[in-house]
Amino acid sequence: LGIGDEGNGRAIVSYGNPDTSRNVSAYVPGLGTKLDKDFVDGTMKRAQDTAIGARRVDPSSASIIWLGYDAPQSGDVMSKGDAQRGAPAYNEFMAGLSATNANEAPHVTAIGHSYGSLTVGTAAKESGGIPGVDDVILLGSPGVDAQKATELGVGKEHVFVGAADNDPVTHLPTKAESYLGSSVGWVLGGPEGVRTANDLFDVGNDDVYFGKDPASEAFGAQRFEVDDGPRMVLEGGQFKAHSQYFDPEKDRVSATNIARIVGGRSEDIVREDYR
Question: Same domain, yes or no, for 78 and 177?
Fold first, then answer.
């Protein structure tokens, strides 16, 4: 649907016809995404897996990968700037998507993974919300610059969250916790002291770097079941738990839940308790 060399590269690719499908999703990727081999081999496959899964729910389904902004590449991931610049472009694209769809009332899902969830959340908080969107899926999110799911414009019953317990990105502490927790924690007793100190500065344990934890009860979205993934250190998982939400081979339950939402059958998802 689109290609360009602006910034780190632009690519908008659809698996299935977004103009004729009853169900259409548009997925925004996050940190490190650019127009390169990894984008083709990995990031695009996530949209493909979503389309294949959604078509099992409803054959009239299409899934888009939307790289229409400069995703952060390194240290700028700790800033909201890229999300704030990308949100208007995403909303403009989504407005066009709804306008060109031949169905009277297409079912449209916005999906944000990692930093891309912040971009989607920022877009949803703009005046009027994301045009034409019925459901929002947040995966591996470090927060979406919101305190409540109701801020995303589709109603909390239509905001869905997948957050693996071993995904470190979904546990990123706030700036204040990082600084104060580290300072006080080392005095209390090394790494374990840091975790204890962080709890002192986040009594409900429901704040992450960019706002309220989307998987928390305080945020109030619909959390669905995903595989916990390998533990970062003890099982050598590193960031693997952050990258498998879409993959039916590595996390079938998550991929199936995503497919059900995109395919218009969100009532069939397997739910998970809040954090």
Answer: no
